[in-house]
Amino acid sequence: MTITKDNIFKVEQITIKDICDKNFRFIIPVYQRPYVWDEIQINKLLEDLRESCRLESDYYVGNIYVTERQDVKKCFDVIDGQQRFTTFWLISLYFKSSKSGIEKFIQTEHHEIRLSFDIRTEVINYLNDLVGEIKSFDEKNLENEEFLKYISRGIKTIDSFFRTEEDQSLVEKMAKFIYERVKFIFNEAPQNTDLNSLFTTLGNSGVQLEQSDILKARLLNILQDQKFEYSKIWEACENMNNYFEKNIQDIFGFDTSKIKETAFSTYNPDVFTLKVQVGEELFVPEGGKSISQILENEEITTEKDDPKAKSSRCRSIIGFNALLIHTYRIYRSKAGEATDIDSFDTKKLLEIFRDFVASADADKVKEFFVLLWRVRYLLDKYIVKWRLPNTDLSDSYEEYLLLTKNTEQDTNFVRSNQAFSNLQMLQSVLYYNSGFTQQYWLTPYLNYLLEYDGETDLLTILEGIDNSMAPGSKKDSSWDLCKDIRIQPSVNVEQYLSKKLGTSFEHYWFYKLEYLLWKNWENKTDNKFVNYRITSKNSVEHVLSQKEEYKNMLTEEPDLLHSFGNLGLLSVGQNSEYSNQHIGKKMIDFKNKPTYDSLKLHYIYKSYEIDEVWDEVKIKDHAIAMINLLKRHYYPIE
């Protein structure tokens, strides 16, 4: 085929500001699936954006594939990348009253919505309502609308993220940052492209070379010998969606009848012998490339671990890039380094390791690889993973954050779920509050476990880490904790929770309270309690609603409506279910569920049920009871 300007892609780097300046408009074609990003994915993106904004570093989103419509100039069908692109449009809605520039992303200069959906009239109408602040849609009914429910949830998740940010000046900086420094790779397909074929091809495209592959090649290139052996140590740690002992078994040869579980804790070449030896040139099996080939052609993509990937065994809470960074921080701490790495951005792995690659000799590289092995072993032994509650792998079953035990059965090692425990519940709290990509708490916890593997009272240590990290800079405090684990927070809990902040309360305090209520629950055989899990929650619920259906309100102290005693934390979907109902109706809905939506709300409805009253006195009493529980945890001497 002859290559002409009519059959090649136009590729350029583009910002949201560029899109607005060029007055581009976008349509999501009918063959695209609905918007489906959940709270975790949105919060992960927002956290990454916040970190890049703080570091004043450009944020690269990745590819968006489009084709210009023949009938309308500057109007493009989005072929691939619509989930992220739609999320950025929803983010711009939060800033529609801003003067930072991002508000221009909402509409074109002709006041047309910049992002629309082909044929989906209900979506178009809903987006127009959002732009015009018209409330013609019932929020409760949106949960039944396939093409609307995740958009509705996404708006609430974004609103909650920015509203609860302690540094509101940073929020305004983020608006300008997103507008000017978020960069897409804009791929415009020729107009004669078979779009359905292109869409299918993009969806099935293979994995390209990763930053971790390049880092591996650079580190192995420093070694004078044993390159093949150390490459296999790396590969055993690399697959995060399988258990470590299974990775080792796939790569190294050992007699399962003569090895104990503890043997996996440290790399021992006398125990783990390589299955295969190749020629002088070392090859990377997945890419079929040698070290020299990788170093000559360092094309980089983002992290390979798919957060939605299904595994027959488990799904890690972090990706391999994050594991490498945690290990590097621990390595630096043990080497006596006074300062932490500048960034914990998994997309900047090569930049983070640049100084180490430049200065490390062969011995230091080997030390790092051996430490990586030990850290990976501890991660699988002590840290929760996403697992199904039983061995049935049907997609209809929900995954949980679970701890497991590795036991020897016959001549094999078998993973079994541990019972729900205080340690597992606290790790769930940390998972949802420590940066979804980074999980900062892992650095000090894994660092401690390296010294005290096998200690029984790990809950006290993890509570100390959690107490010290919230609130404040997770990155800074997690680095400090590698040196010294404190037991008290840097905030006055009672003073903070006595404020009337409403939806601006930091979600962490609701999560921590759920953990303490679970830990101190009296009736452990209560079926609803047994079924209770700490899950992703991002929407603050007013028990006495701000716009209660019967117009009931607090008359003596109306600002108590926004006090901690009148609030609970729910998922966006749960909050929509309760909506603006009378508290009596909410209580009935709450009690009819198979488990508690919130342990805090259980105590609120239990108090209301006594005399069907929820007033200023009861709101204050509940707040005092919850604050006292937190105080007893943080200040046990008092």
Question: How would you sum up this structure, described in words?
Answer:
With 638 residues, the protein is of the alpha+beta class. It folds into three domains: 10-203, no CATH class; 211-421, no CATH class; 503-634, no CATH class. The chain is 45% helix and 11% strand. The strands form six sheets. It has a six-stranded mixed beta sheet. Strands 7-8 form a two-stranded antiparallel sheet. It is globular. Mean pLDDT is 86; it is low at 277-288, 300-312 and 391-396.
Itemize the secondary structure elements and their pairings:
Blueprint: E1 10-15, H1 16-21, E2 25-28, H2 39-55, E3 59-68, E4 75-80, H3 82-94, E5 115-117, H4 121-132, H5 139-142, H6 149-163, H7 168-181, E6 182-189, H8 195-203, H9 211-222, H10 227-238, H11 244-251, E7 252-253, E8 273-274, E9 283-284, E10 289-290, H12 291-296, H13 320-334, H14 349-352, H15 354-359, H16 362-382, E11 385-387, E12 400-402, E13 404-409, E14 412-417, H17 422-433, H18 442-452, H19 458-469, H20 474-480, H21 493-497, H22 507-519, H23 527-530, E15 539-542, E16 567-570, H24 572-578, H25 583-591, H26 599-611, H27 616-634
Parallel strand pairs: 2-4, 2-5, 3-6
Antiparallel strand pairs: 1-6, 3-4, 7-8, 9-10, 11-12, 13-14, 15-16
Helix pairs in contact: 2-6, 2-7, 3-6, 10-11, 10-16, 13-16, 13-18, 16-18, 17-19, 17-22, 22-27, 25-26, 26-27
